Amino acid sequence: MTELHEHHTAPARTGIRRLTGPGWLRVLWVTPIFFGIGVGLPVLIRWLAHWHPVWKGSVILTVELVTVPLGFLVGIGGFDYWAHYASGRPTVEDDHSSHGAKSWRDYFRVNTDHKVIGIQYVVTTIIFFCIGGLLAMLFRAELAQPGDQYFNPQTFNVLVSNHAALMIFLFVIPAFAGLGNYVIPLMLGAADMAFPRLNALSFWLLPMAGLMLVAGMVTPGGGPSAGWTCYAPLCSHQPLGQVFFNMGVQWAGASSIMTALNFLVTIITMRAPGMTFWRMPLLVWANFTTSLLVVIATPFIAGSQFFVMFDRVLHTHFFEPGGGGYVLGYQHIFWFYSHPAVYIMMLPGFGIISEVIAVMSRKPVFGYRLMALSLMAILVLGFSVWAHHMFVAGMAGWLRVPMMVTSMVIAVPTGIKIFSWLATMWEGRIHFTTPMLFALGFLSMFVIGGLSGIYLASVPIDIHASDTYFIVAHIHYVLFGGSVFTIFAGIYYWFPKMTGRMYDERLGKLHFWLTFIGFNLTFFPMHYIGLQGMPRRVADYAGRFADINLFISIASFGLGASTLVFLYNMAKSWKHGEPAGGNPWRALTLEWQVSSPPPIFNFDEIPQVVGHPYEYGVPGAKHAIFGAPKPEPVGTD
After folding, report:
1. What angle do CA 451, 357, 519 make, to 5 degrees?
2. What's the total number of domains in the chain?
3. What is the Cα–Cα distance from 62 to 85, expressed in whole angstroms?
4. Any bridge partners for residue 535, and if so which?
């Protein structure tokens, strides 16, 4: 009888475990519960307070955009370990049997392996990159001719706002976090990130933020159209989709802060024996300074978005002039984050380029210590230049000249890096692989963007060029040329390490040239039409700009099409590419001293760092030797 009873109850127990265990099945019933909580709480509170009407769209939606994502995270298992710990129940110690990826399904669940999380980040950000690029092609189709073609001005501004937000918050910043997640523990000789569970949670916040931004565009009341800057008080009076925008930025910011804290603790506490700060690869230095920027600056944009949300939902008057609010205060808070954010979107790229150029030139990095110190200088100076975005905003006149000076001074540490990269390549044995081509493309494009930035730092030129297409050209030469090119360089460079396969070099070079040519044909003419007076963020324009705008739109479609080559190359090579050895680039840094892909816990033996990571051409040079005792499997939260 006992055996018969167990035979009947075993399937039932298995079914209950599947339903209540972390994963997508639990998401299906936990998320609706949190949805109900999100509806019930504000309605109950308003009823108890005798506020009428009980139902208010912005209030309910704001609460829902907190509770529903929390329900999803609870369902998928993001809080299971911490919930057991906080409630006093026995915690189930992770035996690491599920660590790493044994099949494609492991990328669709909570996984604490930094390598899995890195790939999750990169793939997710590429998806949002494609969505953001599609939005750009839609509004460029509208701008191909003067007049209204396909979209009214409100919809046009929705497309422009979300294009920028997706590219910044859902592609550039998290793509660097993904590449860093994969390679930095390997570069440091660590088994994983310092806080693996927090690392997993920080990733799962990201797709939710992206879905909020996308969902906001198709909200029945209308999408967010106040620009990616979300200027107050305009954003407080936008349709309901603006709430999606505000909350999406908050969730993306929370993800960014968690990741930055994890990087800082990992870099400071988990370096291999002998890995001093002056032996760290420059990518580690770049992520260290970037993480400090994120932790210091990102709370400011979070605060600004909370304030504009309070103005909308709670009828406060932080930035409402009718209630005594200080409108310029929003811009000061926003740009105090958003100019350091430019360096958040560039410093990791500087680190990637340093790795690629040194390896592909077969030479030590010229001025290694000065390169690291220049990263720290950018960190400090980045907080002193925000008001150059506000030269025409009506701020105090005495503030213009100091901001003009600091905006020019910050070009000095960046110039040091440019000259260092050029000196590294000088008389080197350069290998023009795809990562190196993107590195060289970055150098040329970023110099153009930097030069136009010096012009815009000058008060009289900025006043003339403000809110014109000259600004659009500048920011794209800085962020597309300075960030997207470096992301592509990093993906191609570490693709063999991530997948164990080599990409198709011919397709990689085709992708570079299509991107390089399409990018310049699209954005360089914008310098001219901007100085001629064409304003940005408008759906219509004077007929005298018609021909050049048609040219730009056609070029932008070519730039968008170049991404198809990249996607095909990555998908084809991941499945059918030639097997890659452990070190196809003959690099010295630690991630290339293990197999491709690396072992589950990165190193079978603790590496002992004994030399510099860039001693190419130095006879007998070694960055590390192996043979110390085995490491602990993984850090704990």
Report:
1. 45
2. 2
3. 29
4. 468
